[in-house]
Every structure is written in structure tokens, then in C-alpha cells.
TrEMBL record:
One Pfam short name: HD
Organism expressing this protein natively: Methanoculleus chikugoensis
Domain HD: 23-126
Protein name: Phosphohydrolase
Superkingdom assignment: Archaea
Length: 198
């Protein structure tokens, strides 16, 4: 790992919980997906890697401050990058990618790096990991199974059609199929339990 990236990595790690629906483990998976997709797409990794590392840095403060984490995260990233004299010409691209990564932000990702980050973040909400994170988040918020499955229908099942890059579209097809199979099995089991109780 490049020394500059290692310092960034440590900085972000100290700001996030180690695990949880949006913990540092999520950030690491998004970074890895960005590396995989970015390499295939020819993205500028000096923009993409910092954007991926910082994309959720403000998540822990969102509820108490009321400031969307993508906006505060972009501000925090810009401040940090300037403090370490990161190449100035790359900072606007990093800031844009962070601001545009969120599913519900309404900001269209206008650069390749922003599109790759959006894809990677959405892919981590799909498949087996997406299922685990959804139930983890429901538990963290004191909600039940029906709340979690509501999230599948409100958001996760729409993600397949929101991918920008070809490789992400391919990965999303597999993860979408897994989500559907899981929901079918869950519906069957919940239905079977209810009917056997009556």
C-alpha cells in the first residue's frame, strides 16, 4: 500500500466503527470493489481510492447533526486532503464522487470515478452481504424482519437497474437473483410458520 494511501486508510479507520451496517468493514469492501471495477474501466485510482475510503466517513454523525453524510463526508475529505497537500487537481473529482455516491442523494455521478463508486457502494447492498447488512441495520435500529424486508422492496431490488458500468451490471445480476431467492425462501418459511401455528 502506498504510504499516502496507508495514512488515509488509518485516518478513516479511526473515524468509523470497525463493523456494523456502515462500519469500516463496509468501506473496505467498497474499496476492493472500486479497485476491481476501476481497473477494468480505466478509472483514475488517485481519485477513486480516496473517494471510496472517505465515502461514509460522516455516517456516524448524520443522525445527530442532520447533515447528509455525503455532504459532510465530502467536506471532511476535502479538508483532510488539503491538509496533507494531496494533488489539488484531483480533489474536485474526489469531492464529487463522494457527494454523488448515495442512492437517495439525487446527485448524478458525472465522472467515471463517481459512477464506479456509486456502483461499488450499491453492489455492497446486494447479495449475501446486502442481506446481512440489512438485517444488521434493522437490529441496530430496533426494527423487525418486516422492516428489513420492506427495505429490500423499497431499495435493494431497484439497485440492479442503477448500475453504470458493465462489470457492475454483471455482478448485480447475480446478486439480484440471490436477493430474490432469499426473499422467496423467507416468505415460504414465514408463511409456513404462521399456517402451522393456526
Amino acid at each position: 500500500m502506498h504510504e499516502e494511501t496507508a495514512a488515509m486508510f488509518d485516518h478513516v479507520r479511526t473515524a468509523l466503527p470497525e463493523s456494523g451496517a456502515h462500519g469500516f468493514d463496509h468501506t473496505l469492501r467498497v474499496v476492493r470493489l472500486c479497485e476491481r471495477i476501476g481497473a477494468r474501466e480505466g478509472a483514475d485510482m488517485a481519485i477513486l481510492t480516496p473517494a471510496a475510503l472517505f465515502h461514509d466517513i460522516a455516517r456516524p454523525f448524520e443522525e445527530e447533526t442532520g447533515v447528509p453524510h455525503e455532504e459532510e463526508g465530502a467536506r471532511m475529505a476535502e479538508s483532510y486532503l488539503r491538509s496533507v497537500r494531496y494533488p489539488e487537481e484531483r480533489i474536485p473529482g474526489i469531492v464529487h464522487a463522494i457527494r454523488a455516491h448515495r442512492y437517495s442523494s439525487g446527485i448524478a455521478p458525472e465522472t467515471l470515478e463517481a459512477r464506479v463508486l456509486s456502483d461499488a457502494d450499491n453492489l455492497d447492498a446486494m447479495g449475501a452481504v446486502g442481506i446481512a447488512r440489512t438485517f444488521m441495520q434493522s437490529g441496530e435500529q430496533g426494527r423487525d424482519i418486516s422492516d428489513a424486508t420492506g427495505h429490500f422492496h423499497d431499495k435493494l431490488l431497484n439497485l440492479r437497474d442503477r448500475m453504470y458500468t458493465e462489470i457492475a451490471q454483471s455482478i448485480a445480476e447475480e446478486r439480484h437473483a440471490f436477493l430474490l431467492a432469499f426473499l422467496d425462501a423467507l416468505d415460504d418459511e414465514i408463511g409456513a410458520r404462521i399456517s402451522s401455528d393456526s
